[in-house]
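pasting for the record
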Amino acid sequence: MIHRFFAALILLNGLMISHSLSAQMDTVSFQGGGTIQGKAVSPENPAEKTNLTIELPDGGSLVLPSDRIRKKTSLSEMRQKYLLSAPLTEDTVDAHLQIAKWCRENGLAEESQKHLKRVIELDPDHGEAHALLNHVKEGGVWMSPKERQELRGFTRYGGQNLTSQEIELEKQREAMKKTLGKLKKEIRQNYQAAQGGNIQAKAAMKAIKNPLALKPLADLMDKETNPAHRLFLTRIIGGLGTIASMNYLGGVALRDADNEVRMAALEQIKKKIIAVPGAVAYFKRALLSVNNDEVNRAAVALGILESEKAIPDLINALITEHQRTIVVGSGQTGASFGSDGRLNSFSPGGNSQKKIITEQKNNEQVLSALRTIVAIHYPANRVDFQYDVPQWKTWYQNEQRTDLFSSRRDRDPVK
């Protein structure tokens, strides 16, 4: 038996040359909900543009005020065929299955799903319809992919199959991301206003305590070139009082170009007692830097933090060796590079060669920090051996009655 659906399709294919079906069909959505299919016709008279005429597929038309129309979408030829023929389909398993297959072949996935679901309503154990819907039978029960995942404790969320715990964590991350975005915008606006002298904005910046503010504040700090503004931001970051903020300020204390900013960072670290041990370890490692400026800045930091545990490291750093590569040649001044890799001077020419030279430097700020710490922790036995490293080591080993020294690591020459 040929179902009326296919008969209708054959008839429609023959009639597509007619005016009624060759015309483009539209879906018109209304303000407040609801849709209708038909041909939306713009009025020829400009004065009537406040209205829209909709020619209906089965004849007749509607004239509606334009302000009631939310959206107009043109329909594909296949969707037009479906909308005109589907109402003729019998409400049987076979009829719905056939039209579902036709929809599937012609790119109408949503409509195909609708008819397959109707097949299952009419025949709950219809294997072909279930298979087309990607259903699987488990324990005598047909289940959709979603139902199978839920049975295993998974739920579809954000394009992934997640457990309830994972979904909760994902929601928390999304909420944090949203909060961070809002906080970042607020901080940026207040910072710009504070730079312009707005007193309320300055007060709002100083009142920041949210740990999430570190990232946006650090971003501002990293881009800021004005020392006064960096000083302002340093104190605000210190006010957060978190270990993460103290770790960030450790880098500021070691590498910021402005001495006042570096001292402010150290002041904030010292106030946070719980952060001091980590900071001491960080600055002790920095005493091994190939950059001599960082060696001395690390020593200043350790002196301010008054760390007795740093004494052996400071003794080892009193005199440091730094290698640099120079380029020399006949009758040339050549080129030389500092320990930080920067070019100091250059004369081009042939017959040149590289030469590595080693220089020793007495680090005045390392000695100053060592004197300060010894005076604090050994007031009855204050000594000063200047840059005599062996005497310092002998004295300290006698004080501690153990060997606490290890040689400084070799420094690689700058290539």
